[in-house]
Amino acid sequence: MTQNPPDLRPDLARARVTETARPGQPTIGMVSLGCPKALVDSERILTRLRAEGYGISPDYSGADAVIVNTCGFLDSAKAESLDAIGEALSENGRVIVTGCLGAEPEYITGAHPKVLAVTGPHQYEQVLDAVHAAVPPDPDPFVDLLPASGVSLTPRHFSYLKISEGCNHACKFCVIPDMRGKLVSRPARAVLREAEKLVEAGVQELLVISQDTSAYGTDWKDRDTKFPLLDLARDLGSLGAWVRMHYVYPYPYVRELIPLMAEGKVLPYLDIPFQHAHPDTLRRMARPAAATRTLDEIAAWRAICPDITLRSTFIVGYPGETEEEFQTLLDWMDEAQLDRVGCFQYENVAGARANALPDHVPEEVKAERWARFMEKAQAISEAKLAAKLGSRQEVIVDEVDEDGIATCRTKADAPEIDGNLFIDEGAAHLQPGQIVTVEVDETGEYDLWGRLV
């Protein structure tokens, strides 16, 4: 396990630590796989361990044991998780497994019988119990038990803010509700308190995440408002940091969020998992089959906030997807003109209802449709970015390399998943987390280049 380089994906994040462990201090390493929601779980586990006096090791060799936080959403993710467990066992030998794949302990122990313990997702207490059993705590009460702040697996200028756990949807391709349960929203005061502490600690960007951000608070029977997300977004927007909304289902009331974006309270950015556009495909997915109304909503959002950036993900090759259905998706993309797009080729997930659907699409057809889809998305992205040539953009600095080249992001770019804006000259003095204004002087398919103004 090596120090986390700045260009490493979040699903391979390692602890970023600067302090040196005191002599005799028990130390734990962490390998965190999967989505940002799992990354938050990893940060919470490490923060709890740090508060108990454990040191956090940035490599295998310095750790008394290693926690691997797994992903179990797709078969490919399960394979990656098993590989990571195997690597940790090979490099360290003392491994505790947690996370989504931990919901299938026999699957893990069947491949790696030497793991010390297996726990499921967000089972923090069980993870701590397993660590205590493997590496007993030995805190120094004068220096260990009151850490200044939580342990972060992201750069200090941005942080993921998880507002709820679980999901009430029953999409046929997804097993997340089986792994993480039904929707459970965190109390608004707890979310705000965490956000305030993060901003006080220097965080410049809050990335709001959950399985279904739009549904936040709708599980409360005694709530004061019908859609608590609106009040939460307004309160977060008052803290002075960038606030970016992820995993927002396009419910009608989402339109009420858009004025906050137009006013600059929340970033003009929505990450919405549309998944497909043909109503029959959506019905087979058990998703809302309202692609036409979605186009109307997109038009309404853009009318309120013309600068809004829309990101989404799609699945091609879903069981039963015909060429006509796929062409409908391409035509919908032409109309929707989404700014940022990701696409996955469908694959079976153990336990998902979609596995039993008829007419599975051949692998070569999935690959061909994926290529056509990405070609379309790339052309749209290139044209959208070309329209920004000569514009002035506020950007947040993520990194400045040894050659003085700054890697930044505009308000339209989430870390790791979207594009970047690069400043090639006069940027050596910039610091990560700094927000500066640039003029765009070059554009590409996914990235921008600019100069300081």
| Structural Rg | 22 Å
User: What's the N-to-C terminus distance?
Assistant: 40 Å
What portion of residues is helical? Answer: 25-40%
Q: Number of helical segments?
A: 12
- Looking at CATH, the homologous superfamily of the largest domain is tm_1862 like domain
Strand-pairing-aware structural class: alpha/beta
Q: What is the number of domains? A: 3
CATH class of the largest domain: Alpha Beta
Keywords: 4Fe-4S, Cytoplasm, Iron, Iron-sulfur, Metal-binding, Ribonucleoprotein, Ribosomal protein, S-adenosyl-L-methionine, Transferase
Domain TRAM: 386-453
Binding site for [4Fe-4S] cluster 2: 167, 171, 174
GO molecular function: 4 iron, 4 sulfur cluster binding; aspartic acid methylthiotransferase activity; metal ion binding; protein methylthiotransferase activity
